Amino acid sequence: MADYRVIACEVFEQEILNGLHLSPEKCIFLPQGLHRTPDLLKTELQKQIDLLDEQGGVDCIYLGYGLCGHGVAGVCSRMSKLAIPDSEDCIPVLHGLSRAGGRQTVDRTMSYYLSAGWIAYGSDGWKEYQRCQEIFDHETAYWCTKEMIKHYRKFTLIDTGMPSYSEDQAYTRRISEFFSMEYGEVKGSLDWLESLLNGEAAFNVMVKPGTPLEVKMFTVGNSAAID
Questions:
Q1: Which of 90, 107, 95 has its CA nearest to residue 153?
Q2: CA 58, 199, 107: angle at the middle one, nearest 5?
Q3: Residue 226 predicted with pLDDT over 70
């Protein structure tokens, strides 16, 4: 592999470092909370890309993101190729590819998905309840949180084989019981992330230096991905 860098959401940190065994020196992990404000995500991504451009010598920058509310649209490297999963966000990427070698169908209507990285760095029902409880009493905080997650029937853990699996499973079961919701679990995979690092165009968007990422390049943006 030519010289590269990875800029990724910290949600992918365990999969990238412990699963794919990439060197930490090659990776930059950004706060998960940037997803909440796509413009801030775009600004921080571009800042990190510009710093790498200034250093030079990087053939490709792999972005551990999806389209993420259009937060990656417009980012560009003057010096390096960019590659990013052709995905709406991290959830399908963590599910991995199907046995037939295509994208899996991810049902978001019932499940509130959690993963090792989401539990470590992201927000979820339990953390929102704790935040609300700083302001309200238990009953009000519980009601507010239940309103936030009322469209979901269960918490579903995506198991990507990380060392924290037992703790993540216990955590997900605990909050499922707390909110009187079902517990679910699906087997995830690192194969989509591997395809990104292997330069496979089938499930990833790749652009040459000087070309910004555009929404239309993503199939989730209702247009075919480019080669």
A1: 107
A2: 120
A3: no
